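Every protein is a chain of amino acids, and every chain bends into a shape of its own. Below is the pair of lines this work produces for a single protein:
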Amino acid sequence: MKPVLRATYRLQFHKDFTLYDAVNLVPYLQKMGISHIYASPLLESINGSMHGYDTVSWERIDKDRGGEKGLEALVNALRIHGMGVILDIVPNHMSTNHENLWWNDVVKRGARSKYASYFDIAWDQKENFKINLPFLEKPLSSVLDDKKLFLAYNREQKNFYFSYEDKKFPILWKHINTHFKYHDKTDLSSEHVHSIEDFFSTKHPLHIKELLSKQAYELSWWKLAGDTVNWRRFFDVTSLIALNMDNETVFDHTHAYIFSLFERGLIDGLRIDHIDGLKKPSWYCNKLRERLKAIQKKNSQKLQGEIYIFVEKILNKEEKIPQIWHLDGSTGYDFLEQTSLLFHNPQGEEILTSYWDSIGNSSYNSIQKAARAEKIDTAFNQMYERFSHLLFNALPACGYISKHRVSSILKEILLEFPVYRSYFSDVTRDNQSDIFIDQAFKTVKEHLPEWQHNALEAIKHALTQPVIAGSNLEQAQNIFEALTAPLAAKAGEDTAFYRYNRLLSRNEVGTEPGIFSDTIASFHEANMLRLAAFPYNLLCTATHDHKRGEDGRARLTVLSEPEAAWVPEVEKWFSYHEDFSEKYLSKADQYFIYQTLVASWSFMDLNKTSFSKRLKAYLIKALREAGQTTSWLSPNKNYEQRCLEFVDDLQNSEFMLHLEKYLDHIGPSSTLNSLSQLVLRCTSPGVPDLYQGRESWDFSLVDPDNRRAVDYALLQQSLQSDTSQAELMNSWKDGRIKQWLTQIILNFRKEFTDLFARGDYQPVEVTGTFSNNIVAFSREYDGVKMLVITSRFGFSLGLDHTLRSYSENWNTTELATKGSYKSIFDGKVLSGEQTLCLDNMRGTLPIDVLVKI
């Protein structure tokens, strides 16, 4: 019998934290109330990979992560404690490293490789097709002049290859042997090898050029990848090539080992990375579910229980995962967005927007549209040009469409497309695609001159109609749906999120920064919809991909509260550093740095040297992602150095005292946000997902900072300590209160599993002074009823520095429910014959989870 999913704990596996290391954590996680480890990708990836999303083989567990024996050891330990495993897999792409033998064979043999159909390569693009490999640090001529590319010999594999930096490019033996006429490459003497190496040495660049020209590939400069690459990448990452996962042969080959792990009871469910990268997500998800069910049916006794499948998907506020995919839900970015909107105070929107306008003078919409246009012209230019070419050739000949006009209109559509992608090319369609494409075309039509409307309608019809397999139109549809998602991601979360600095807590994966806040009613509605459609949907507020830690965002959220007085405070900070004028460092970048310090500064045991190093590495990445004052393509080292000097100036001045004083000022309110967010994640419909170590405070920055090692010894020690709630509140800065609340609620979930899996959801109306501060709901199943009370906007609650609220207004705040309820935290009872007065919240932490008695 498989364990029931109650709470997941995401672990990042790599050479420094293996499956064997996780075995030692199982008792701790079980005490925390976790039901499943949610494992990062475990299949073999490139040597030294710290994340596992660069797969080189689908046929084994990575030995650096512990191998299959390590997985068996972990699962054995988990089963003893009644726990399971959800495995993250990456069906969208594989690494282009030479360690990937399938890809290496395609590079070597071209279209004749037996793996040629495995990868999404534009084989039909031109005659004498060569796979473009944009991996050179300089143009090829410069690389040859610098003697950086040379012939090498692998004596174990008895193969020659081109060596360049850390890369190896395969060579067909026949192209070498043209000059030597040796009988067998497997029987070469040392003298033969030396002769070949000498003939193709860097002393003879023309020989190297000739040999290169005969290969199935061409080498090019990495900076031109967006113009030259003729295969689909993961976003714009040239080290990752897309798989043709809609090809049944590819599906079967890549998933055979995964299915064997499931059959042997070594995994209980799957997390699908970047579902929108697949050509046919519906086909894939249903195929996956069908195969897993067939395996389960054959082994019904051993594999009895739910099969959990989740997808990583960024959802528009109005978008839902199609029911026809037959999933258990998403990985939870949608919940992250719903809670983020809930905790931002709408009263702060006008103030913060006005202040940002005085610095950046741009709306989010205009910034992300400009970023999309830039990405179309650079990172995705080749893909866009091919899309435009194929679609033009597929359109019927008429007098109102030209190639240039098609290209121009397509760009407008891409700029306005409101979701990651549509699904017209999939085997099954849902009406959401029609809704969102109608929305995009309507917006484009509004600013197109009337004489172009016929062309626009022809393009819309072409992109949405059923197509003939293999036609230009089918290829155009596929490219459109493969382009919109990476374009949205690279222009949005990887560019505009670093340019639009109104309030950085709204710039997170899965969020819409242009929307500032939302109502309590909207939050309740989202919870009820999730319960009805995906009761096992994961609920996350921190991930391995987040831009800022969940508690750093919760702290920034407080800046939306008028009482935080953020604008006057930050204006003082600017005045302290007038030497860094806008000519020296842009005010927008300074503002970004100030918010980053607010989000990432920790009170406890902070190693100042380590923090400075982390912060500087983050800022270089952030500035280059923004692509305004410096970029990955054209690093402005002088400007970057000025930013680093600014950071040094901040950290070596009295400014840090002002920062810490301000963080003390907003600390109780930000902590209330953090703990309320935690309670909502653990009690709302769905399955709470904890990212490694985030049971304590999380002030991390974007990867790789958010993937640093976790001090599990400290966490285990704090879990074992017998500390009262009052003491934990008094010492909230050490993070133990967060861990304490987490383990109490998760173990309560364990005791009342059906309540959380099947219980109904009822919003509880709040009246009185704090009606806009309190978020309350009940859940009930089989005679058990739970009442959840959380708070927001802590300044107006009058929190003191021990997280207690002594406001007299609790006496006038009531919940529209009745009965007697007992707190699972401190055992206090809340009772009322008609309503529940919250006067017992006075003098304590205004958060509670109670059971009806």
